[in-house]
Design brief:
3 domains, Pseudouridine synthase, alpha+beta, three-stranded antiparallel beta sheet, 7 helices, 17 strands, Structural Genomics Hypothetical 15.5 Kd Protein In mrcA-pckA Intergenic Region, Chain A
Length: about 300
């Protein structure tokens, strides 16, 4: 079954409160829960115009810009059947909830959104009890840790502006497969999405990619591994994983980017978003300790 979004062709004028927003995010806000791939397709094929001209999905809009928005059709997604207990499990992950935002400590293995071979995602469970909540950023499916949700549209706009202005501080714990050559290493390398020979999407360093900056700080050398804290100034897809692999120190447990010969068995990616500092609506800091299964990996490394 298909459903149309947006009726016929319409022309939307960008308001002051949307100035600076990327075109793709602007369209998603207008069209609702449409696949991002569909948004990219209608932009790439020229069906979307900004002030009468074609534009790229990453174009930053200005107040007063006029965006041509075509009607879109998509397959209506059946309501997913959620595993028993998932909704309660997600509720237990909440570490902060107020009128503006909520913060969850997302477990590894749970995608933020369903689709692309996944029957369900975290948001399918969230909307059962909090239908107005929207994620402000994303974590990869195998990454655990702090995930920020906006509880209303005004909060979503304000928090997105904070992210775009790089006023949000995010730090991760990670275990690198190898020895970090310096106590502090800043990686400023643009990243680009590609599809590799096997058909998988991955991210690689590329001069024509999007700017991406990650700083690796050594916390402990554990044998042939480096336990680090990573601070990111940008939030690109697979940023930490791609930057670590790019300096030949891929993350332990990374099935997509780690091509080193496995010297120990791990059942998940060693990457955990442990620190989040917000500047809106006020300056506040949240943290989530390293999960037990990752602490066990560190202990095994120390023993060996």
């Amino acid at each position: 079954m298909t459903e149309a979004r947006g009726g016929g062709v319409r022309h939307e004028t960008v308001r002051e409160d949307r100035a600076g927003q990327r075109l793709d995010n602007f369209l998603i806000g207008l069209l609702g829960s449409v696949p991002r791939s569909l948004v990219y397709r209608i932009v790439r094929t020229g069906q979307v115009r900004v002030n009468g001209s074609r534009a790229k999905p990453m174009k930053k809009l200005k107040a007063g810009d006029v965006v041509r928005v075509p009607p879109v059709k998509l397959e209506k997604r059946a309501e997913p059947r959620l595993p028993s207990g998932l909704i309660d499990q997600v509720e237990r992950c909440l570490i902060e909830q107020n009128d503006q935002f909520a913060i969850l400590n997302k477990p590894s293995g749970l995608a933020v959104h369903g689709g692309t071979g996944l029957d369900f995602g975290l948001m399918d469970a969230i909307k059962q009890r909090h239908p107005d909540w929207r994620p402000v950023h994303r974590l990869d499916r195998p990454t655990s840790g702090l995930l920020l949700m906006a509880c209303n549209h005004r909060a979503l706009r304000s928090l997105q502006k904070s992210f775009m202005a790089r006023e949000v501080e995010k730090r991760y714990f990670a275990l690198l497969d190898g020895v970090l050559p310096e106590p502090l290493m800043r990686v400023d390398v643009p990243l680009k999405k590609i599809r590799d020979g096997s058909g998988q999407h991955r991210v690689v360093p590329a001069e024509d990619g999007q700017d991406a900056v990650s700083t690796f700080r050594l916390l402990e050398r554990v044998g042939d591994y480096s336990y680090v804290e990573v601070e990111i100034e940008t939030g690109r897809t697979h940023q930490i994983r791609a930057h670590a692999a790019g300096i030949d120190l891929p993350l332990v447990g990374d099935e997509l980017y780690n091509f080193h010969t496995a010297s120990m068995t791990v059942n998940r990616l060693f990457l955990h978003a442990h620190y989040l500092r917000l500047s809106w609506p006020e300056d506040c800091v949240y943290s989530a300790p390293l999960p037990d299964e990752l602490s066990d990996v560190l202990s095994r490394c120390r023993l060996s």
